[in-house]
Amino acid sequence: MNTVPQLMVLHGLGATTDQFNGMFDTHFPDAPIAMNMPGHGERPRENGRASFDRFAALALDALDQLQVGSVTLAGISMGSGIAVKMARQRPEMVNGLILMRPAWMDKPNPANLKIIRDIGVWLSQGTQDEAIERLNADPFYADLAHSNPAAAKSILGAITRPHASDYAEVLTQIVEDSPLASLAELEALTTKTMVVGTPDDPLHPIEIAQAWAAKIPDATLCELPSKYTAPAAFQSELEAALDQFLSPTSTKISE
Fold first, then answer.
1. How many CB atoms are closer than 10 A to CB 193?
2. On the CB side of 7, how many CA atoms lie within 13 Å of its CA?
3. Across the strands, what pairs with 2?
4. Are 180 and 106 in contact (CB under 8 A)?
5. What is the pLDDT of residues 17-67, one digit of tens each?
6. CATH number 3.40.50.10780 is the correct assignment for the domain at 6-108+178-245
7. End-to-end CA distance of the chain
8. CA-based Rg of the chain, rounded to a whole angstrom?
9. What's the rounded Cα separation, in Å, for the pair 135 and 153?
10. pTM over 0.90
11. Ranges for all domains in the chain classified under CATH 3.40.50.1820
12. What is the pLDDT of residue 250?
């Protein structure tokens, strides 16, 4: 069995493991363990309902198949929720959590993800072109296209991604789920954790990252520049935060 800690990355809803390209290369020189969840990338969706429980079980099974004894989990958005599920189920395996831009509190259908659920519904009801027309007519999206074009482009990607129509139900099903039944569940985490939040992020309000960090006993809240409006600064400051978080003698990062 491999007892050396490794990195596993867990992508966001509608994304793929490409989200992490270059993000952790400085701190984890070995290739991370990475897998696309069902209904993402070229991986077909499953017949059953997509859920955080199901995706966490698939990721844990992958680690068991690889005989991984110790792992650091890094998740973005949906991936953060999956990582929390995994850490609660297998605390002896998970030696670190990097929870980036979480998007759920403890209720299904969060308001910040309504546009993603709507896209899932639109794709299920019509063509991609029709879904794009409905998106362009949406007041929230129209405003965002002017105020935060990078965030708007990310939302549009939920429609234009490969197999978007075939995998549309995964979008709605995950938004209708939640990784937490109660925020109190976060208090049971015993793993050293870094929670990353950013401003100017309508899908991942920084208040969610703040709430998660306040509940996790051994958590550091790391507020970084916006991934959408200042991507270079985001990456630079993320690397500085990781320097401190991953140091054997690290103390809490200044908030």
1. 25
2. 19
3. 68
4. yes
5. 999 999 998 888 888 999 999 999 999 999 999 999 999 999 999 999 999
6. no
7. 38
8. 18
9. 11
10. yes
11. 6-108+178-245
12. 53
